[in-house]
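Milestone M4 deliverable, item 7.
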Amino acid sequence: MKVAIIGAGIGGIATAIRLANKGHKVEVFEANSYPGGKLSEFQQGDYRFDAGPSLFTMPQFVTELFELSGRNPADYFQYTKLPEVCRYFWDDGTRLNVSANINEFAKDAENKLGEPAENITKFLKEAAFKYEILSGLFLEDSLHKFSTWTSKKAFRGYLNLPKLGIFGTMNKANESFFKQPKTVQLFNRYATYNGSDPYQTPATLNIIPHLEYNVGAFFPKDGMFGITQSLVNLAKDLGVKFHFGAKVEEISPPTPDGGAKTFSIYLEQAKNSTIGAWGDRRFGAVVSNMDVTPTYRKLLPKAKHPDKILNQAKSGSGLIFYWGIKKEFKELGLHNIFFSNDYKTEFEHQFQKKTIYKDPTIYLNITSKYKKDDAPEGCENWFILLNAPANEGQDWDKIIAEARQNVIDKLSRNLGVNVGDLIENESILDPRSIEMRTSSAQGALYGNSSNNKFAAFLRHANFSSDIKNLYFVGGSVHPGGGIPLALSSAKIVADMID
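Output delivered:
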């Protein structure tokens, strides 16, 4: 069958690979001139930056695509396991470098934070158990198929339901488990991995640390964009056709009366398009890797829209500063967190007041620590991410200006140097530009919000219940956002089409 994939994000590329392996003829249409969506890169003077996701976990989800295709993963994609997960900084001078060795991490947490080591090891052991139960049910299969709920995996989940944290919040679970507030804060931050609030989101998200500690954190040899580029190369080798600068304007489904038996894809004329001006392309199936909300609102204007899903509150977004820094800092690693002194208030500002708190938690990623050519000698490429609300028409110029100064002040205090004087060049990505560049509704990074216990069941399915052979892949649909989940959604969709 001939299949069109709209969007060359990581989920769309992975779907193309899986479908090509099943013998389908696949074409990918991407509005931008480059692949990857959020998982892209750019050059800023002498500095290279990964534009979006900066943490790589579950590498097997990537390498299995090469193995499925009968290729040696190492011929396309190389990565290394990190000996250190993250470095944490608090304004009172407390610092904790978290080793990838769980026992060392636990020992250091006891020495630096006063948290009993056995609490750390027990928590991560339970996280592994919960992941084993939940992954088979929530991550590998469609929640919108009856067979999922009658499987052996489902019944195992039912038997362990009280242990999975579905009915309490992440913060309450962590407060009852750990003795020290700083440890609670450290593990609460994993709610941000899908744009959530730890004081609202269910404790089931405490499975996320399992990926980072029990499985490991990794770094691709060519940076995070190396994931995208290697999978594009594989897809092309399998015969997938990519069309860049090809913005899809409308999807016309088959008609009930049989007048149109295939989908038609209408393209907007684009100067840099590899396939030219307006015209239709006919396909037996369509997979949208575009955010599900604009897919319906913009590309399917005549179709029935699932308004209850599309109108849900959105996940958090981000404010990113890309700074070329004229100095190297030995106290910083690849991943660094500078915590707010009032975490609860920070999330209240994000989700209730729809702004950024004056004392934000700062995530600082420096890929030049591992990929030296990402910055000139003696310099570093700083990727600074702040949790931000989705775009609802706020005065972003004012918010950005205030946040920028607050970040400089906080980092300067912690590092003992005026960071503002070290910024050689700068780019900024905010919820408005995220929405514009990636078609993410309101600039939300993970689609609909997960700040309630029913969130997993309220995400859009990977298929349309009204239009046959229309499918959805990526972070805005089941099972959720982030690289591993986007790759999981690709497998779900490919199996459905098969």
